[in-house]
Every structure is written in C-alpha cells, then in structure tokens.
Specification:
Blueprint lengths: L17 E5 L5 H10 L17 H17 L3 E7 L5 E11 L4 E8 L8 H15 L5 E6 L4 H10 L2 E12 L2 E10 L6
Helix pairs in contact: 1-2, 3-4
C-alpha cells in the first residue's frame, strides 16, 4: 500500500545541488530546450528524445506526469540546478505496483550537464522518496545493456546488477534485452 498522499504535487525533494519537484506547465520551454540539446546523447537510448520533439509533446508529457501523480502510478520529478534554475533533466518512479510495493526508476540528464553526478544524485533522492514516502520495498532500474552512462548511474545509486533480461524493453518497434538492477532501501546507505 502506498503511504504517500499522492494528491500533494507541491513536494520538493531535498538535495544540496538540485531542486527536484513535480513537473509544471511552466516548465515547457525549458523542457523543449533540454530535449533539443540532448538528442545526440539521450535520444540514442530514449526514442521520445528526437529532433521533432515539439511543444505539443512537452504539453502532453507534463499533463501525463501530473495525471500519473494524482493516481499514484507515476512520480516524475523535474531536476533543476539550485543556483541557476536551469532544467537539468528528469527522474521518476513509474510502473508503480502497490501490491508488491515496487516501481521502476528512470532518469535522464541534459547533454551539457552529463557526467557531473546529477543523475546519481537525482536517482538517490527519488529512490529515497519511493522508500520513505511511498513505502516501496524494491525499485528496479532497467536499461539497455550498452547504455554505459545509465548503468553507471544505477551503480552509483547503490543498485545491484541482477541480470540481462531477455526481451525486457520494447523500443523502436522491437524487443530488446535489458540490464536489470535492483535497489533496496538499505542499498542507499
């Protein structure tokens, strides 16, 4: 059972370097800028990040995030630099399974801010939220096997590599194997 009041979308997660909060309509412009900057890096692994990503896509994403939050199925956080206010990316919990108290953790960081620890810091903050506020027992991080950057973030978060799962991800109209990492609350210590 989820322990968090899912209708509270005014939450901010604590982190010294980052401001993490649910997506808002006011983020559309910065989201478009970050996506277009990141097509070469993020787009390689996440097909939604492409050159044709437009205003309607951003509006739909933010509306979907807010709706998912309200029903307790998707808790997506926008990541901002504390000092500059620049949007750095996103991290969130999706595929929330209240019966088994587990969820998937996903993240992306805009190209100009990659390899600076942003992804790992955000992933840890969102995982803490999942364990402490939602009452999750397990969080999975599922990435394409050759996505070294995302695998490194998973490892820095404390997640344990568990398997290469066959046909685990459906992407670009075909099934792909995926590296599966498991994260428990005690792994964050």
């Amino acid at each position: 059972m989820l322990t968090y009041e899912t209708r509270d979308i005014s939450i901010e997660l604590p982190d010294a370097r980052l401001r993490l909060r649910p997506w808002q309509e006011a983020d559309i412009g910065q989201l478009l800028e970050a996506v277009h900057e990141s097509v070469d890096s993020v787009g390689r692994w996440l097909p939604w990040c492409h050159t044709g990503y437009g205003h309607d896509d951003a509006v739909e994403w933010i509306a979907s995030c807010r709706a998912g939050w309200l029903v307790g199925k998707h808790f997506a956080f926008a990541l901002f630099d504390v000092d500059s206010g620049q949007l750095l990316g996103s991290a969130g919990l999706s595929q929330v399974d209240p019966l088994h108290r587990r969820a998937n953790l996903g993240y992306w960081v805009r190209q100009s801010r990659q390899r600076r620890g942003v992804g790992a810091a955000a992933a840890r903050a969102v995982a803490r939220f999942g364990f402490e506020q939602l009452g999750l027992l397990r969080i999975e991080i599922v990435v394409l096997p050759h996505n070294r950057a995302s695998r490194t973030v998973a490892e820095k978060t404390g997640a344990a590599f568990e398997a290469i799962a066959r046909n685990r991800i459906w992407m670009r109209n075909s099934a792909h194997d995926a590296a599966v990492y498991g994260l428990l609350a005690r792994d964050l210590a």
